[in-house]
């Protein structure tokens, strides 16, 4: 390479280094030497790099950034650094490559550029197999992979296509076929005559914590030629129970782990050595994805240099992965946001409990949930709630205005009593289960404390009923139906009722509800907000826990059953509540809601005997029902 | 709790209770205060009420003051009767006491003017 070309190339690389790391080339000799055209990126190993520099004197450190084709050496003396730069630029070659070197003013600190620690829950038992056992298994894999190669035969190896054709790896399944589209197996379809072979079972029985009862029954054999990988994935939770075990044979490889819901958590590069057993449990099983990057070289921890990174060439590798199929399909892991099973149940109280068969148990849980997440919450937030609830909805005013003068009206779940004195020529009596709210309502009219599911009022006695924002607080469909039945009971025949419940659809006919529109006043939700991590809360009930999603205020509903946080809001005058209330009420309270989908209120009302549906309409994010008693 | 409200309450919320009406009043504290007389309101309300129960309630509070046991056919024109009815319906307020289920003897407390008709009292303590 002529000097001119070398200088030009060098300038370009040094500019890139300055951009990447803030490190500049130096005109004067320093002890810091940069190799401008070789690094981890193009396969220079730390050992080779170190060997090169040791020829010129003592080396203090070598620093090799990942994904870069440059690297740094720190020489003990400037003299040996001068010797190195001169010698390298004087046609020093490595692997028939011409190298060129330059002095730089400093070197980067890259101790944290790669994290090699396994993610939590991952255990690696090194030398689980002895050499003879590894050979035995390698020979067996070769035998089964050679004996049959008809791709249409399910008992043979199949080639998994990943991206370009160079990245194929071969897999073979025993017990059940692993489906790479779903990262799952179908527990209903065991592979006929293809149980895990005896040769493997003798090792499986030595896995920690394994006995006859939880013996793995699914095996996937993977054969990786150098350069082949497997895309990052999480084995779907529900099809498998217990840990996943993987035996590594042949060449070591780096497995990449990635945290599934916190991108800021650094990836982990875990070396899987030959003869080792890897056990995936807890976070590493359920919360982190794993995969093998298709490449011929891996970056591994330097043995000589603390915090350093070097490259390791891959050879042919095989892995035997053992799983236990979970016929129940139930997964109660601690990572509900990543769990297919819990996600399919979440947002539905009835289904989130494993007690569908037992109606009484479900009833008790629903009661507890309502007590803790409706009644207690309203008692705690009553005064603050009262200050924020004063606007009367137009549909309700219209309904009340349609009633004959001096009708006797019951306000079911009257809350702070905002409708109790809305029309002076109506006699209205309100009730609510929450005493805290009734104390506010009492200032406006007559009230009593009662439960909507067992109303302490006589049958066939009221001319009309309104029930606003109440029925959506009941946790099961049967309780929501019971609420309608009870309201109907206390009405006179022919009397009218009005029910408002919160709608799951907050944007109907492209009209955003008042609820959605008001979010602008608080905090603009920008379109570029990154995917919001869904938050789940566990509601403790005596029979266990119910996991429910926590709604993000002023956003659309994703689930039907959820918790809506109540936090201290700024008052209209811009101030907060009385300061002494601040600490108490600034706590976040979670209210339980079942939001109604389109048609749901109609279908519920249809099942109540003696109830005649007059109208169902949508108003400001609510589904509204007008009915009469037969 | 005004007597108009008492007239609507029942212990039907208790399991097994058939009618649960009228609830016997055991008053500890009763207040009376003047409420503007609305003739039309009283006329419209009276047919919606259980009149004998109202009389019974008024009597137990010592407020019967000549109210007839039956509502006469010409009550709408009987200004004196309407005013008496207005008084016991709207001006007498049971502040503290108990309501008793006629079928089971179950007691519902009345505190600070609010009758507690919850079947299961301990589960619904208000102050948490």
Q: Determine the mean pLDDT of chain B.
A: 91
Gyration radius of chain B, in Å: 15 Å
How many DSSP E strands of chain A? 32
Main sheet of chain B: which strands, in order across?
Answer: 1-2-3-4
- Which class of chain B in CATH terms? Mainly Beta
CATH fold-type name of the largest domain in chain A? Rossmann fold
CATH architectural label of chain B = Single Sheet
Q: Find the CATH topology of chain B.
A: N-terminal domain of TfIIb
Share of helix of chain A, binned:
25-40%
Number of strands of chain B: 4
Pfam family, one (chain A): RRM_1
Keywords (chain A): Iron, Methyltransferase, Multifunctional enzyme, RNA-binding, Transferase, Zinc
GO molecular function (chain A): S-adenosylmethionine-dependent methyltransferase activity; tRNA (5-carboxymethyluridine(34)-5-O)-methyltransferase activity; tRNA binding
Catalytic activity (chain A): 5-(carboxymethyl)uridine(34) in tRNA + S-adenosyl-L-methionine = 5-(2-methoxy-2-oxoethyl)uridine(34) in tRNA + S-adenosyl-L-homocysteine
Characterization of the model:
Chain A: It holds the Pfam family RRM_1. Chain A: Belongs to the alkB family. Chain A: Its cofactor is Fe(2+). The complex is a heterodimer of chains A (630) and B (128). Chain A contains 16 helices and 32 strands. Chain A is an alpha+beta fold and 630 residues long. Chain A folds into three domains: 3-103, Alpha-Beta Plaits (2-Layer Sandwich); 122-328, Jelly Rolls (Sandwich); 359-629, Vaccinia Virus protein VP39 (Rossmann fold, 3-Layer(aba) Sandwich), CATH 3.40.50. In chain A, strands 7-15-12-19-10-9-8 form a seven-stranded antiparallel beta sheet. Chain A has a seven-stranded mixed beta sheet with strand order 22-21-20-23-24-32-31, with helices on both faces. In chain A, helix 9 runs parallel beside helix 11 (435-441). Chain A starts with a helix and ends with a strand. Residues 148-156, 161-167, 510-532 and 570-585 of chain A have low confidence and may be disordered. With 128 residues, chain B is α+β, with helices and mostly antiparallel strands. Chain B has four helices and four strands; from the N terminus they run H-E-H-H-H-E-E-E. Chain B has a four-stranded antiparallel beta sheet with strand order 1-2-3-4. In chain B, strand 3 (107-111) and strand 4 (114-115) form a beta hairpin. The longest helix of chain B is centred in the middle third of the chain and has 13 residues, at 79-91. Chains A and B meet through helix 9, strand 21, helix 11 and strand 22 of A and helix 2 and strand 4 of B.
């Amino acid at each position: 390479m002529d000097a001119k070309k070398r200088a030009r190339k060098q300038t370009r690389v040094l500019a890139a280094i300055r951009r990447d790391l803030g490190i500049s080339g130096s005109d004067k000799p320093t002890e810091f030497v940069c190799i401008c055209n070789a690094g981890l990126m193009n396969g220079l190993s730390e050992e080779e790099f170190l060997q090169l520099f040791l020829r010129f004197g003592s080396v203090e450190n070598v620093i090799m950034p990942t994904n870069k084709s440059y690297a740094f050496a720190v020489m003990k003396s400037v003299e040996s650094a001068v010797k190195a730069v001169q010698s390298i630029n004087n046609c020093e070659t490595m692997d028939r490559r011409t190298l060129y070197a330059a002095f730089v003013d400093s070197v980067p600190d890259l101790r944290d550029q790669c994290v090699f620690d396994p993610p939590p829950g991952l255990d690696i038992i090194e030398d689980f197999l002895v050499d003879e056992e590894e050979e035995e298994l390698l020979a067996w894999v070769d035998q089964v992979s050679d004996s049959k190669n008809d791709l249409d035969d399910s008992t043979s190896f199949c080639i998994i296509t990943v991206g370009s054709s160079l990245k194929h790896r071969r897999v073979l399944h025993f017990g059940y076929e692993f489906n790479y589209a779903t990262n799952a197996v179908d527990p209903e379809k065991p592979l006929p005559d293809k149980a895990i072979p005896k040769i493997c079972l003798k090792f499986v029985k030595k896995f920690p914590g394994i006995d006859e009862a939880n013996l793995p029954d699914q095996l996937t054999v993977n054969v990786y030629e150098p350069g082949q990988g497997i895309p990052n994935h999480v084995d779907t939770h529900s099809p498998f129970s217990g840990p996943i075990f993987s035996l590594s044979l042949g060449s070591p490889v780096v497995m990449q782990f990635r945290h599934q819901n916190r991108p800021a958590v650094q990836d982990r590069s875990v070396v899987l050595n030959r003869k080792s057993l890897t056990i995936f449990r807890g976070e590493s099983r359920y919360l982190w994805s794993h995969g093998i990057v298709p490449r011929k070289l891996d970056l591994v921890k330097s043995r000589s240099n603390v915090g350093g990174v070097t490259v390791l060439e891959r050879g042919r590798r095989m892995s035997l992965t053992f799983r236990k199929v979970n016929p129940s399909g139930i997964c109660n892991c601690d990572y509900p946001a990543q769990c297919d099973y819990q996600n399919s149940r979440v947002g539905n109280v009835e289904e989130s409990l494993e007690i569908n068969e037992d109606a009484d148990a479900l009833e008790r849980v629903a009661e507890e949930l309502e007590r803790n997440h409706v009644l207690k919450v309203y008692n705690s937030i009553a005064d603050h709630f009262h200050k924020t609830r004063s606007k009367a909805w137009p549909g309700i005013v219209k309904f009340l205005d349609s009633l004959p003068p001096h009708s006797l009206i019951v306000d079911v779940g009257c809350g702070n009593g905002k409708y109790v004195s809305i029309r002076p020529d109506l006699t209205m009596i309100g009730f609510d289960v929450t005493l805290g709210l009734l104390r506010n309502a009492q200032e406006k009219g007559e009230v009593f404390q009662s439960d909507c599911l067992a109303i302490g009022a006589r049958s066939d006695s009221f001319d009309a009923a309104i029930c606003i924002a109440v029925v959506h607080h009941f946790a099961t469909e049967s309780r929501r139906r019971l609420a309608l039945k009870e309201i109907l009971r206390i009405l006179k025949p022919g009397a009218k009722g009005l029910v408002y419940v919160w709608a799951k659809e907050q944007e109907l006919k492209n009209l955003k509800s008042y609820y959605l529109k008001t979010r602008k006043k608080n905090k603009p939700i920008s379109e570029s907000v990154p995917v919001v991590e869904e938050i789940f809360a566990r509601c403790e009930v005596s029979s266990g826990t119910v996991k429910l999603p926590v709604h993000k205020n002023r956003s659309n509903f994703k689930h039907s059953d959820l918790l809506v946080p109540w936090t201290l809001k700024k008052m209209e005058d811009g101030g907060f509540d009385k300061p002494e209330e601040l600490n108490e009420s600034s706590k976040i309270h979670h209210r339980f809601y079942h939001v109604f989908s389109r048609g749901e209120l109609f279908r519920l009302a249809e099942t109540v005997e003696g109830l005649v549906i007059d109208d169902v309409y949508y108003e400001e994010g609510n589904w509204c029902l007008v009915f009469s008693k037969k | 709790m005004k007597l108009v409200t008492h007239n609507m309450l029942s212990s039907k919320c208790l399991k097994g209770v058939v009618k649960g009406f009228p609830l016997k009043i055991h008053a500890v504290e009763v207040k009376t205060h003047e409420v503007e007389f609305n003739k039309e309101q009283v006329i419209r309300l009276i047919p919606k009420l259980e009149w004998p129960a109202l009389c019974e309630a008024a009597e137990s509070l010592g407020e019967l003051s000549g109210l007839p046991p039956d509502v006469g056919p010409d009550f709408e024109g009987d200004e004196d009767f309407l005013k008496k009815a207005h008084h016991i319906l709207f001006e007498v307020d049971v502040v503290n006491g108990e309501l008793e289920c006629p079928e089971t003897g179950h007691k519902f407390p009345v505190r600070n003017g609010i009758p507690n008709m919850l079947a299961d009292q301990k589960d619904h303590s208000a102050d948490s």
